[in-house]
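[Meeting: bench + compute handoff]

Bench side (C.D.) handed over the final construct sequence. Compute side (W.E.) agreed to return the predicted structure before the next meeting so the bench team could plan truncations. Sequence as handed over:
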Amino acid sequence: MNSQTESNIDRAEQDRFDAVASGWWDPEGPFRP
């Protein structure tokens, strides 16, 4: 990753994604159809 890409990351958005990522593939999780 170059410095331009690293400076383009929205830390708040990444933190929100990290908080829900573990439930993404959980068939009984919050993202189930």
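W.E. noted at the follow-up: The chain has a mean pLDDT of 85. C.D. will use this when planning the next construct.
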